[in-house]
Design a protein that fits this description.
By secondary structure, the chain is of the alpha/beta class. 28% of the residues lie in helices and 28% in strands. It contains 13 helices and 21 strands. The strands form six sheets. Strands 4-20-16-17-18-19 form a six-stranded parallel sheet, with helices on both faces. It has a six-stranded mixed sheet with strand order 7-6-5-10-13-14, with helices on both faces.
Amino acid sequence: MLRESTFLSYGNTALWSMKIKIKYGNSTLEFHIPDTIRTQVLTPLNDVPEIPLKKALISSLNDPIQANPLCSTLSAGKKILLIVPDKTRQCILDKLLPIIVGYLGDYGVQPENITILFANGTHQNQTGEEIERIVGSDIRETIRIEQHNANNPGALEYITTTSRGTPVFINKLVREADIVLTVGGILHHYFAGYGGGSKLLIPGVAGYETAKMNHSYTITGTGEFHPACRDGHLDTNPVYLDIVEAIRHIPNIFSINVVLDSDNKPAGFFSGDIVSAHRRGTVLASKLHEVPVDALADLVIVSPGGAPHDSTFIQSHKAIHHAHYAVKPGGRIIVAAACNDGIGSSTFLQWFDVSEESLGKHLLSAYSLNGHTALSLRMKVKRNEISLLSGVDDGTVSRMGIKPISSIQTAIDTVYDTRGTSPLVYFLPHGSLTVPIFHK
């Protein structure tokens, strides 16, 4: 994100403005905000000490949290499964995987006994080009790579049923491995509390019905979005607690977690027990990504942060959700999200054909994946006017209750013309990471 002052004319008025460049897909956008408008840029904390990547990662493997050193479990002939995020999650795998594979080799594990499994959840597969970009050419050429398919019963194995009633089906490769290593980043998640850790297993490599049942706990018995399903909250979060209960039935898991700043530089590694190590890392993630605000804004302009954060609308919704924390009721949200892979769900749009009054009841009786996302979005659309610049067609955008726009600048100028020179504007250039915290 780049800011600089520029002299512009607005109608018959000449005034200075702030020029801003933001990420949009794999490109950038530029717009201006008049300096007469109170503007505050909300960004994650980036002034954290730089850590030596390889040294810090290996140190976390040898001195893990509530687990034996990884090296003590390794030997020749051991089958290792590396579960990694798909293209919708940023995790610098091209830098981490060569170090991890090299570490495994130092303790006798041969490349032919290592498999990488993409935790696609219910997302689409990566292309060959995308795989190479994510893991790097050397890893792609030397290590077996598989992609999880939640809709392939033949690739799944039943593990258990949780106390909440979730039937747990997991990719067979998990049970076939001697050691399972999850490798992922820790960041806020709008209904599971935080991403990474155990979410790489559920929904990452779980069956569709497992993911569907687990995500359905976002809906209360009265058809409302569960208040405990929110960013940064784990202790009473039914989605998170259900996942943790399920994964405790899977032995031999060692979790490798990284917290990245908004420049994708590692701020800390947390390895070991999949629950304890992840929980320890959430403290740093909160410190980096939560931003206090003193007042709610009239307008919030948000970018998820470019690819991969805005690859689909479902992914981009996380940034919209974060933006809504910072805007007053009746205020406006302007979103720039490329959504080059479309909506990202085959069942999402159907929920916008159900009346708002009966949506909750329909979700209780016939829940489908991402139904809770539709409920959450409709709550925000009712509270705020949301405008979207994206690659999604205007008809689909309108169907969601959102106003399609062709220019961020035009949308901003409309606010400037209709609200005068005194609105408070927040700008979130890394909306998928930034979580505004407003205390009344």
